[in-house]
Fold this protein.
Amino acid sequence: MKISILGYGTIGSGVYEIAKANKIEIVKVLDLRDLDVPELTKDFNDVLNSDSDTVVETMGGEHPAYEFVKQCLEAGKNVVTSNKALVAAFGEDLIAAAKAHNVQFLFEASVGGGIPIIHVITECLRCDEITRVSGILNGTTNYILTQMDLNGVSFEEALKEAQRLGYAEADPSADVDGWDTCRKTAILGWLISGHMPDYKMIPTEGITKITKADIDSAKAEGKVIKLLGVVEKTPDGLRASVKPTVIGRDNELYAVSDVMNAILVESKYMGKSMYYGPGAGKLPTAAAVIADVLRTTPAAQG
Ligand code: HSE
């Protein structure tokens, strides 16, 4: 098995580390910086023309990730990505391209970091009918809200620490303004309905207006504030939203703290089931990427 990696940032370097530990051969690493990585190239064509079976995309953002991924699929390479911006904007197009070229486009790490929620929905619950999914889908904002609540840390200090820990996006406004949660909510909506909602149409509110006073007033009632992404099937179609929500102990998501994410799935046969784990960070996310890489082997498919 031979892979190449597009982008050697927090997740890409984690993928490199875990790939080596799993004796997966790394052919090329694309990054524009001068890095001390033997497989480094600054030219995407070196990846495209390489003999890698699978390309891992951990650059983030929509462009040029989309163009690179599409060309890899069209060249007969599997693609594994952690990039929720790419999946939310182009997931349907890229799945179609993968099918047309008889390869796989896998994106487990794009929602919930290390939590294997994509495979839970598409494989484990495939005989069930999922009616509603609600979740804490962003590690950075959950970390900030928890630190403000439990340790009295300011919003700015907590954000700085989330950045230092490698949880936050390159531009953390994607986290704190709710757009990261919004894109993940759209992906979950796609998986439960078969149709990708336009993430730009999902009513989205982040956590920048939440004050310590809001947190304290929720606490006085034995409640907490969580940034929730919710998608549900209704008689009028799929309804989705992203907003800070006051929840009590009766909500299964109440105790999900710091960088942890959790996704509460409601379905016809199973009822409620919840999936919990680290929602961001180098190694948990990279481990989810490598799990997808291993799924692309003939042995895993057989
Ligand atoms: N910035 C994201 C988060 C990374 O904090 O959840 C994982 O998608």
